[in-house]
Each structure stands twice: as C-alpha cells, then as structure tokens.
C-alpha cells in the first residue's frame, strides 16, 4: 500500500491553537535533514529568513483565534514542504537533501512567503489564510530511479475574514464551499476517497482577495495550476469569484445584464473587441467559438470603471505561449443590456 499524507486546514478539522515551532532557529542545534538543509544552503537559509518575516507580518493584528488557526496552518505547511520535496512523500529522518530536493524547498518557501502576503487588511476588513495540502507517491514513477516526478503534491489556499460578525461567518462558509468545488483534497476532510486525488500530477488552487466593491461585493481571483508528470509544461488559469454580502451568494449573470438577447449582444461585443485587441494571435474563427466563455461570470473582472474585462485562459483563443489574454469592453457599449442592479453590484452599495 502506498503511503499518503493529507494536511488539512485547521478551520475544517478544528486543530487546537497551540504555539507553532519557530520557522527560524539556532543552527547549532540543527538535528534533522530539513534543519541542516536550511542551515547549510544559503538560498534556502535566505528563503527561510524571508518566510519567518512574512509569517510574523501575516499574523500581526489578528485576533487570538485567527493567530491560532494560522499557526496550525503553518505547521501543516511545514509538514507538507518536507514531504513534497522527497522521493516517497515521507519526512526525511536521515541523510541530506540532494540538489533537486533543495531547489524544491527553496521554491516551496518562497511561494509560501508570497501567499502569506495575502493575510492583510483590505478596505477595513482583516483577512487571513487557511490552506490544505496533500502529498502522495506517484504510482507510475515510484520504481523509476531517474524520475523527477516521484511525488504528487496538491495545495489549496483560501482567504478567511477575521471577525465574529455574520458577514465573516457567511463569507468564510462560502469560500470553504468554493474551495471544495475547486480542489479534490478538501473533500477528504469529509471522508472522501484518496483514489479521487490524482497521484500523477501536481495541482495548486490559490484564492485571494482582489478588491472590495463598496460594502457589498468581495471579489477574489482564483489562480490554478496543473502539471501532469512528464508533460512538456504545466497549464494554468485565472478566474474570479464575486461574493455578494447582502444576499450571501455568488454573482450571477442577471445581476449585471438583462434582456432576452443579453448573451448574444455580449458575445458579439466580445468578438469585436477580441479581434481589435488580439487579431494577429487568434486561433478561433467565429463568435460562436467564444460564446460559452464570455457569458460566464467567473470570467468577468468588474474592477475597471471604464469597461468589463473578460478573461480567457491559455489555449482558448490563442497559442499557449500567448498566455491568458483579456479584453475590455467599454461599459457604454453594453448599455442596452444593462440590468437594473448592475451599478449596485459593481459599486457595492
């Protein structure tokens, strides 16, 4: 039976809020391969120092309960990092990390520092983070001594509001549900089957707050990454979650547009804009090729006062090397299909 390690967020498992071990330590007391790697490798030592500062900043100003949750979260991440950078998804108890393992640790540390920057005050609301991780051996690579992909690693990172008011309770529940929809590893907290977690790929889902539209709308961007072991490259995407606080739900199309022909009007406008902004790179031929994409609210960025930004993913309208293009349709070109609630939702009043 293959080994498997699941590291779930404290918010789902009610991990006790006990003090976490310090991220930095006295190197004269280094005892484990992990500790020796931090002390012996300059790049990793620098990444460790940055992580310690990032974590201290990320927990500043939080309530006692939220600090406890983030400390438990950081312990979970430390366990994940150690397992994700080995050949068997187990914590190393002897020996030393090789160059690949060390590079893996540097990448994990620096990525975590960047993620922790999302624990901050935004427009009067204090957000913090909760995460979940899974690490398991790749069954297709375990017997290949030359494999670079012996371990599959999965992560999901979600924002949470640090408050005991109804808004925080509702928002945190909404985000937990959305995270579970986007990552299989969260389902394991409820007794899900480990066989549903892909052992031959690495995945990442990071949900972070993008903007607060007034007092009513909280918009998050969702960054996903998937790498199938052995593939030429990974694939990624950018999308949006819009939470409407007064109705405790996500945005739907009728909040922004109305009328029997709103979809066709939006598609035609998007097609014209796509040709104007990206004509020489397009690999789609008609408006019908983008029809299902542009009417989806998860593709809408509402942050621009001048126009609706629509997000495309790699491969959808152009070559992978072109990235994930966007278009911006001036709002005045969409006046004919404007819903009565559009301004209320966009500006959050």
Automatic annotation (TrEMBL):
Keywords: Signal. It comes from the Bacteria. InterPro entries: DUF3298, Lysozyme_Inhibitor_LprI, PdaC/RsiV-like_sf. Residues 1-22 form the signal peptide. Residues 254-332 form the DUF3298 domain. One of its GO terms (cellular component) is extracellular region. Pfam families: DUF3298 (PF11738). This is DUF3298 domain-containing protein. The lineage of its organism: Bacteria, Pseudomonadati, Pseudomonadota, Alphaproteobacteria, Hyphomicrobiales.
């Amino acid at each position: 039976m293959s080994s498997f390690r699941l590291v779930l967020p404290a918010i789902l498992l009610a991990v006790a809020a006990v003090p976490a071990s310090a991220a930095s330590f006295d190197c004269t007391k280094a005892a484990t391969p992990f500790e020796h790697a931090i002390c012996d490798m300059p790049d990793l030592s620098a990444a460790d120092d940055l992580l310690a500062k990032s974590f201290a900043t990320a927990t500043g100003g939080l309530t006692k309960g939220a600090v406890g949750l983030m400390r438990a979260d950081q312990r979970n991440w430390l366990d994940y990092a150690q397992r994700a950078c080995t050949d068997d998804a187990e914590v190393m108890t002897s020996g030393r990390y090789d160059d690949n393992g060390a590079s893996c640790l540097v990448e994990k540390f620096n990525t975590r520092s960047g993620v922790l920057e999302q624990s901050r005050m935004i427009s009067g609301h204090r957000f913090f983070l909760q995460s979940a991780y899974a690490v398991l051996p790749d069954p297709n690579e375990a017997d290949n001594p030359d494999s670079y992909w012996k371990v599959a690693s999965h992560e999901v990172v979600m924002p949470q509001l640090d408050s005991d008011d109804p808004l925080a309770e509702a928002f945190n529940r909404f985000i937990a549900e959305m995270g579970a929809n986007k990552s299989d590893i969260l389902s394991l907290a409820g007794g899900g089957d480990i066989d549903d977690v892909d052992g031959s790929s690495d995945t990442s889902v990071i949900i972070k707050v993008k903007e607060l539209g007034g007092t009513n709308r909280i918009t998050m961007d969702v960054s996903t990454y998937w790498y199938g072991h052995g593939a030429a490259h990974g694939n990624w995407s950018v999308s949006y979650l819009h939470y409407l606080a007064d109705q405790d739900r996500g945005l739907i199309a009728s909040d922004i547009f109305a009328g029997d022909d709103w979809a066709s009007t939006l598609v035609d406008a998007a097609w014209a804009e796509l040709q104007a902004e990206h004509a020489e790179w397009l690999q789609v031929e008609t408006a019908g090729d983008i029809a299902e994409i542009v009417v989806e609210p998860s593709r809408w960025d509402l942050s621009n006062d001048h126009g609706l930004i629509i997000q495309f993913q790699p491969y959808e309208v152009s070559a992978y090397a072109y990235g994930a293009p966007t278009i911006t349709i001036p709002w005045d070109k969409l006046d004919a299909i404007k819903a009565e609630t559009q301004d209320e939702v966009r500006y959050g009043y």
